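Quiz preparation item.
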């Protein structure tokens, strides 16, 4: 991790202000944020809670690679990628990505790249709980 990246996998509640404060800088005219929230439905069923599990050390390593690639590929200044684990209720935040850059376009592109790549490559698994059962989602990588 360097001074331009903040990577966290935690069982603690995520804090949007912490991510925003990390990426803001007087040289940056754009900050893009992605905040994933637990919704109340999936598969046309009512969701009661989500559970996120991870291989934490590998997740941090992969998230760090995503952040470093975003910095190298998009003209961005800082990036924060934070993900929660454990049981999350409806409305809770499982993931926050914050990106700052001199111009908004780079921040938007890097933010989208980070969440899309995280979902494809990072060993964090989601189990959706319903009133009548449960199902694993995103059981890859």
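Solution:
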């Amino acid at each position: 991790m360097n001074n331009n990246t903040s990577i966290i996998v935690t069982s603690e509640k995520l804090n949007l202000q912490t991510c925003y404060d990390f990426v803001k800088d007087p040289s940056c005219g754009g900050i893009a944020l992605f905040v994933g929230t637990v919704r109340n439905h999936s598969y046309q069923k009512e969701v009661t809670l989500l559970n996120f599990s991870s291989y934490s050390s590998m997740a941090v390593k992969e998230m760090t690679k995503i952040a470093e690639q975003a910095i190298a590929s998009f003209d961005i200044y800082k990036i924060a990628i934070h993900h929660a684990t454990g049981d999350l209720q409806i409305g809770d935040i499982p993931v926050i990505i914050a990106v700052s850059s001199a111009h908004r376009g780079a921040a938007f592109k890097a933010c989208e790249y980070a969440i899309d790549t995280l979902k494809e490559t990072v060993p964090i698994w989601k189990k959706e709980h319903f009133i009548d059962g449960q199902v694993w989602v995103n059981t890859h990588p």
